[in-house]
Amino acid sequence: MLNKPLIFQGIDENEKKNLLNSLQSTQVIFTKNKTIASYVNNSNLIGIIEEGQIDLVRYDYNGDRTIIEHLNQGDIFSDIFYQMDNNETSLIATTTSKILFINYDDIIKNPNKNTNKLIENLFNIFKDKIIEQTIRIEILTKRSIREKLLAYFNKLSKENMSKSFNLPFTYSFLADYLSINRSAMAREIKALKDDGLIKEINKKITLLY
Amino acid sequence: MLNKPLIFQGIDENEKKNLLNSLQSTQVIFTKNKTIASYVNNSNLIGIIEEGQIDLVRYDYNGDRTIIEHLNQGDIFSDIFYQMDNNETSLIATTTSKILFINYDDIIKNPNKNTNKLIENLFNIFKDKIIEQTIRIEILTKRSIREKLLAYFNKLSKENMSKSFNLPFTYSFLADYLSINRSAMAREIKALKDDGLIKEINKKITLLY
DNA sequence: TTAAAAATGTTGCAATTGCAACATTTTTAT
DNA sequence: ATAAAAATGTTGCAATTGCAACATTTTTAA
Q1: Domains of chain A (ranges plus CATH)?
Q2: Does A5 have pLDDT greater than 80?
Q3: pTM to 2 decimals?
Q4: Rounded Cα distance, B181 and B172, in Å
Q5: 20 to 30 A from A65, CA-CA: which of A10, A172, B29, B70?
């Protein structure tokens, strides 16, 4: 993984403790498949994933599931980012996850010398999220299943700095993340193999171009 | 339009002048259809649209055009957000646009009492961009042309606080923004009219549900 | 350990979407 | 004002994708 910005990067342990106290922060652990709700609704809290993985999932009226966002260690989520009708979407911990919640306004509206580094870090985390979302939009706007898959594989290849990488999803989730039909995706992955563009063994992909 | 955060919100004119001087800011006007390039490549600059509209456009090898982002007054863009292979994408002013460029590091890494309000505003602008991108992802992950159109119409309806609104695009651009085929989209808009879900006269849409 | 649940691979068929072509209208540039 | 360019509306046909069903494998939970 490329160097991901972290909230307490460059802040020593003492300083970190002081900040955590002054910022009304809370650490919460969510076990696998738990929904993260009460902590984030209209709270102005920002959740930072210290360990684990979180998916923002939408279930449409017809039963289609869509992974709106797949979040890893270092990523953030917050109700301040979601202004849509949230009734059909929910945040789910896909593995046991340790989340640090901090209050957005506390940091932004009361800056002081102690929070300077924290603010710089938070900016970089916001920036990182914008980059991630831009890449996601680049992928989703590809016009065919094949191009979506290849664009996503390229992203993973870069992150891993290797032509080989493991998919972080089941195929079922991957299809719902790329917003395509699972069996049509399976068909296309087979075609990519037959065409000699990728190797694929057990969710380990190798790009052959 | 809902209240969009602005970079100098709550900062008086004198203060604003001082800030602009200390921040190496530049104001540049781009006439219609001009490409914005030299100002943003590897520059660490953030462009803020004071007037006009900017599209981030990708042309795929096969000729498909995709509008990755459609940016309005108050929106920002920056090379710090785009980490992909940028060779096939470009920023184009779709109307004559007045852009204020400021240096990201200047603000973030040298905070002081004078920049507090500016930092708060910039956070809100970043936050707003994350919200916009999340909504865009929500739309792009819809599974059919009809659902993409309806999700996008809902967004416009909310922004305008009305069931009626004008499309900010030509139909040709709208199709490339939703990443769908233009004539298939035209077919579906006709179907939406026939099914009594919308009225449409001359790019003015009225939702009938 | 073992039964149940979930994920995977596959395929024929149906539905949606893309494509190309063209006529017509609207916009742009000189 | 006028010619050229761009946008729009439409349609038949082709290609892609979705859907449903099922067998098989893998994972999960008691």
Answers
A1: 13-140 (2.60.120.10), 145-207 (1.10.10.10)
A2: no
A3: 0.94
A4: 9
A5: B70
